[in-house]
């Protein structure tokens, strides 16, 4: 599996760690935990604007199908029907901490692997929190 360098904010690290502690362990959640273990953790104010974070709107391509998607990366609590992608989903776990232009191979259910490429990241909500 391709494991590019990832960077996440300490805010996201703590939030995801707390969520993982409260959930029953599954293979998918163990993969997310492993991503946290290898992440470069920085203060929220120091997170570059091109890095995928919770509450950022992310555009990406599934390279095997060339299908493009745009979602807001969210925790499991918000309503997902409003264009949200849960951090606990396989794709949400795969893209956290990636930067624009990075690609990752990620195992999905049924033994298949997808290759995801980040094409755009927008941090409108984070900019409001830091203002």
Automatic annotation (TrEMBL):
The organism's superkingdom is given as Bacteria
* Boundaries of every Transcription elongation factor GreA/GreB C-terminal domain copy: 49-122
Quote any Pfam family the record assigns: Rnk_N
Which SUPFAM superfamilies does the protein's record reference?
FKBP-like
* Record carries keyword Protein biosynthesis: yes
Q: Name one GO molecular function term.
A: translation elongation factor activity
Give the keywords, sorted: Elongation factor, Protein biosynthesis
InterPro entries according to UniProt: GreA/GreB_C_sf, Rnk_N, Tscrpt_elong_fac_GreA/B_C, Tscrpt_elong_fac_GreA/B_fam
Domain Regulator of nucleoside diphosphate kinase N-terminal residues, every copy: 4-42
**Record-given protein name:** GreA/GreB family elongation factor
Q: Which organism is it from?
A: Reinekea marina
Q: What is the lineage of its organism?
A: Bacteria, Pseudomonadati, Pseudomonadota, Gammaproteobacteria, Oceanospirillales
